[in-house]
Amino acid sequence: MAAYICVVTFNVTAGSYARFMGRFSEPLAVQFARLAGVRAGQRVLDVGCGPGALTAQLVERLGADAVSAIDPSGSFAAAVRVRFPEVDVRCGVAEQLPFPDGSFDIALAQLVVHFMTDPVWGLREMARVTRPGGLVAACVWDHAAAGGPLATFWRAVHDIDPHARDEAELAGAREGHLAELCEAAGLTHIEPTSLTVSVPFTTFADWWEPFTLGVGPAGAYVTQLDQARREVLRSRCAQLLPPAPFQVAASAWCVRARA
Ligand SMILES: C[S@@+](CC[C@H](N)C(=O)[O-])C[C@H]1O[C@@H](n2cnc3c(N)ncnc32)[C@H](O)[C@@H]1O
């Protein structure tokens, strides 16, 4: 299931991703880079970089020469190469990182562990390419307790289609699960925490339109609906959200651990 999600639902343009999830992942990246304590002189790997929300923060703090990034989506890897020509960008998966042991001081995965085919193996690979004692950190939206950015969307879906499969059961989406995965991967000094961002929307359309772009499991759900069912879902979302303008708060579970 996770492999299907990765291959199918991230085969979209960087622009579509930015409109749908980038609006949340960009402010999250500011906090996540701060939480990781990234500082000049370190070498850092961004695993599952997408179109580069976290890569941008790492480049700003460390310079492009100190940053490597990897993602299985060809369109996302290409977008990061265009945006940051000096960054070492690879196309590949966390479970098979194309770097020698101990290549980095820090390996980070923002909003990626839940899409890995084998999350424990992916975290173990992140530890392998990090120097002994270096930092491995990951974060995943709180989909299980409805604290993530898509909570209203999935609530509306379930009101209409109670058996629809949402993202709550994905790896790391419930409290404590990221830490369990890190422990299984052999990481030490595991510190769980959480981060919250708040994103403003001026109109309901600003919020809804990006769901129609086919990005991620939510976008895949919308694109397989016919026009009538899509309209029912759109109306239910509009009922559940506050009148515009409004803010959407989104929380992510995080872990910091040692390789
Ligand atoms: C929600 S996006 C996060 C992108 C970016 N880190 C951000 O915060 O905006 C999830 C990303 O994980 C990538 N991905 C999916 N499976 C992966 C895997 N096994 N290893 C590494 N990345 C993966 C997808 O291609 C996608 O770019």
Question: Could you describe the 3D structure shown?
Answer:
It is a single chain. The protein is an alpha/beta fold. It is built from ten helices and seven strands. The protein has helices spanning 2-9, 14-35, 53-62, 74-83, 119-128, 151-160, 177-184, 204-208, 216-223, 227-240; strands at residues 44-47, 67-71, 88-91, 104-110, 130-141, 188-201, 246-258. Strands 3-2-1-4-5-7-6 form a seven-stranded mixed beta sheet. The longest helix has 22 residues, at 14-35. Residues 1-8 have low confidence and may be disordered.
List the helices and strands and how they pair.
Layout: H1 2-9, H2 14-35, E1 44-47, H3 53-62, E2 67-71, H4 74-83, E3 88-91, E4 104-110, H5 119-128, E5 130-141, H6 151-160, H7 177-184, E6 188-201, H8 204-208, H9 216-223, H10 227-240, E7 246-258
Helix pairs in contact: 1-9, 2-3, 6-10
